[in-house]
Amino acid sequence: MPKAILIFLILGLTSISYSQKHGLKDMDLNKLKEKDQNPVLLLSLNEKNEFRLPNTEGDYKAHKQKLKSYILVNKTKANISLDKNKHGDNFDKYQKCFFEVGKIYEEIWEEQSKSKYGKSFNKLKIEEKESITKEYPLNFK
Asked: Is the pTM of this model over 0.85?
């Protein structure tokens, strides 16, 4: 048997063994592709540590409302991140931005709980909370 074919077979068997050992054989490649197709909305922070959306004019309230609309429209496909090209790996800025985005998600969860269940998010049963947070998961990278 030629060496090239022998090497190919060994590598193929090794990769199959590795994927089965680490649970990769059950991975849904379509879900991975689908996740990669969802664009990430890159936020930046101004000097007051208020996030700004790209191509958006107006005060902070306008940016918050536009981000909220983005989340409501895209639901599970809403991917949000702090623009690392502008802010690097500054954890303090990342944390401030994360908390601001988190407040918007809390508003959405509260509104959804009142419209679906007629009560505050904090008063919902765990299953009810999970249904809302699964529909609008906080995807911040």
From this structure: no
